[in-house]
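Researcher: For the record, we're logging two predictions in this thread. I'll number them. Prediction 1 follows.
Model: Prediction 1, sequence and structure:
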Amino acid sequence: MPLNFIQETGGNAFVRYMVRDNEWQMSSAAGMETFDMSSQAVIVDIENIVLGWLKLEGGRDWLPWPKNDPQQVTKPSDAHNQGFSVMFYSTKLFEDEPVRELSASGAGIRQFVMDLYEEAEKSKEFGSGKVPAVKITDGKKVKMGKNDSRVPQFEIVKWVNRPEALSGDVPPPEKTAPPISPAEKSGGASNDVDFGDDNDDEI
């Protein structure tokens, strides 16, 4: 008779962007699954994005910045880079796990969340309790320092009431999140690894 341990995820269900392949993946009980992010708009709780120090090499280590202020947390090591955590929500794309975390430190994906935050902040709906439904399309090839990367493109389709499922998943920062340092100043592609793989931000 086999041993029957309870299967545990070890954390939030998540999505990640694979820079080299220009594709999105989601976690599942069977492993990582590739899916078409552009097929449906996804709710992104960009107002409550959390910034922090993120290490991926040799095991994930995440240290959020209180109030999204990098001055309040000393960089733990050279292996840590400025990263982020933001929640996505979609019952159509993600089915049994509609709330998914996107957490990364790559230059291209950081630029994506910076652009999305800046665009969302311009709307009168920002800060009203509503969240944007975002159509995310293919990544645009760009130069990041000495290396090439991709920045996913997007369109805010509409604003909707924040789903109850998003409440409490990520501790909300102060009213507005200060911008992450520009991606072109990230210090090179060696820092630009995406969630839990040896996939760096170079093409």
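Researcher: Logged. Prediction 2.
Model: Prediction 2, sequence and structure:
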Amino acid sequence: MKYTEKEIQQITDLCRELLQTNETLNAQMIAMNAKLMNEEKKVHKLKQQLYFISQAFTNNTYQA
């Protein structure tokens, strides 16, 4: 099957568009992953703080 120059140009343009879309989506995925990791760190830190506070109440060592 032979393609015309116009068809080849259309395919080339579509390939470039797909590559650009892929790059954009990859960048968004990397950014969202970094955001998720930061949120997970915050949750871990808050869990630790909650644990220490609950231990203080359990041991009656909490002073407000």
